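Chapter review. Work through the record for ATP-dependent 6-phosphofructokinase before attempting the end-of-chapter questions.
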Amino acid sequence: MNTKTIAVLTSGGDAPGMNAAVRAVTRTGISSGMRVMGVRRGYNGLLNRDVFEMNLRSVSDIINDGGTALFTARSPEFNTPEGVKEAADNCRDMGIEGVVVIGGDGSFRGARDLTKAGIPCVCVPGTIDNDIASTEYTIGFDTAMNTAVEMVDRLRDTTESHDRCSVVEVMGRRCGDLALQTGIAVGATSILVPEVPFDFQRDIIDRMMFTQKTGKKHFIIVVAEGVGGVDKLAKDIEAKTGIETRATVLGHVQRGGSPTLRDRVVGTVMGYYAADLLYRGKGNRVVVMHDGKITDVDLNEALNMTRTFDKQLYDIAHRVSI
Ligand SMILES: Nc1ncnc2c1ncn2[C@@H]1O[C@H](COP(=O)(O)OP(=O)(O)OP(=O)(O)O)[C@@H](O)[C@H]1O
Ligand SMILES: O=P(O)(O)OC[C@H]1O[C@](O)(CO)[C@@H](O)[C@@H]1O
Ligand SMILES: [Mg+2]
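Structure tokens for ATP-dependent 6-phosphofructokinase:
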């Protein structure tokens, strides 16, 4: 049986490209003959019934916007058995037969619970962290990487002018992908990620001293948020090397901005795919990128997968930063 009324929401941290996905879900759903409801502020919108019917023009002029036009939230109220039941009851009451959830791993766990409570969900990976095991790519990652690179390039100008060292923290709570890609692109002397334990002397100081001997006078150390501690690290580096060192946390600036071409295109294709799955009566799925192609996997299986960090790329990064 085809789903006749579906809803779409964005949840967790916003990510550039979420709007492209919302737009594609809406237009694919409507052009397939379904009603499409927009839910504001993630799972909170299901609890508060903050839901409105979308038309083809509801999603005009958002493909180029950062953030999410549906707003987002982290909802502790939903993350309880009572909250999930209330959200599912509200969906039934409002005639919502399936939900597209655009968000990160936490949002996917919420979608699994909502599916179990009788409302089939299809998940779309939208997070700048790229930390979802079932997919090679999450919407927002490319824009965030490019923003981080632009910001570190600016830091490099001042770092170089002063013969200093800059320790810069990029986002990524439990995932070093953003740090790794950014670190490579800015030629960082060291990249610290939560997936690979580091030794302060061997992986930072010795590297700085080695490159200094061959004439290097300024240094960039990229640190993932999941490693943290950049202020202390900067002090320790300065104390050990005598090189003036500054710490910078890039923070939420990395989540904003107009999405790159890649995030608009991947967001569009994943959104289309998600609405089409619900149209074909398929729930409990995650839309993923696998070998560069968009496909789907079972939601429970997706949540049981473990992510592998690209250690080979990490090693290459350090081989060439000497
Ligand atoms: N284990 C869980 N069971 C049910 N719902 C959950 C669970 N974990 C998270 N959620 C719901 O999903 C919301 C978003 O989760 P979370 O804050 O972890 O962000 P996310 O989707 O992982 O995105 P990101 O990490 O990219 O910011 C939570 O506020 C909560 O409502
Ligand atoms: O916006 P908040 O709640 O401060 O969350 C920050 C977290 O969200 C993320 O940006 C992912 O969306 C993480 O990289 C970061 O740890
Ligand atoms: Mg998450």
